[in-house]
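ok so dumb question maybe but i'm new to this and my supervisor (M.) told me to 'just get the structure for DNA-binding transcriptional regulator, MarR family' and walked off. so i did the thing. is this what she meant?? sequence i used:
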Amino acid sequence: MVAIRRRQSRRTLARVAGAADDTLQPVLDAVEAAAEPMGVGEVAAAIDVDQPRASKLVAAAVSAGLLRREADQSDGRRTLLVLTDAGRERLAHVHAYRRRVFAAAMADWTDAERETFARLLTRFVTALPRP
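this is what came out, is it supposed to look like this??
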C-alpha cells in the first residue's frame, strides 16, 4: 500500500498530467469532492494540512483563477470556495489523464477482473477509519 501511495498520489498524477502547479491539485480535489460548500478550514482538514498552509494554497488557487471566494449567505463572516470554469477545466483534464493511466495499467485485465477489483477496492476504502 505504501508503494502504491508513493507512486500514484494525486500530486503525481496531476504533475504527470502537465498541471502548472501540482501543489494546488489536492485543494481542487477537496473542493470538488465536498458534499457541501467548504471554507479554508474544511480544506485544511480534507488535505491534512494546518490552517496557515491551507490559506496559502487557497490564495494561490484563487490567484491562479481556479477557485473564487463567495460570501456564505447563511453566515456573512464565512467565505466559501467555488470552482471557476478554469478550475473545472483543469479537473476535467486531470480526471481524463487519471482514467488513461488506470486504463493502461489494467489494459490486459478481463472485465470480470476489473469488476472484482472495483468491488474489493470500494469495500476496502469504505472500511478504512476516517481521520
